[in-house]
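lol ok so funny story. i was supposed to be doing the assay writeup but got distracted and ended up predicting the structure for this chain instead. priorities right. anyway since i did it might as well share w the group, maybe its usefull for someone
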Amino acid sequence: MKKWYNIEEEVRMKRNRISYLLKVKGVKQNHVAKKMEVSEQTFSNWCRNITQPDLLQAYELARIIGVSMEELIEKEEE
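and the output, tada:
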């Protein structure tokens, strides 16, 4: 049986990916924002999928929290 695409689930997972990785790694949002020299509001927006980091920011984010770019952007398997 074909599984239907669930856009709400996709959005939820994207919205929570950065927050999830921060929690797993034990890193605080304000710490990463400061290291990346972005405002806490900007970083919070990334965590809530309101805006997204650009490619260089995503690379720096992955480096700071200790994950690969693949881990940062991959979708969780169900």
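Residues 7-25 form the longest helix (19 residues). The mean pLDDT is 83.
back to the writeup now i swear
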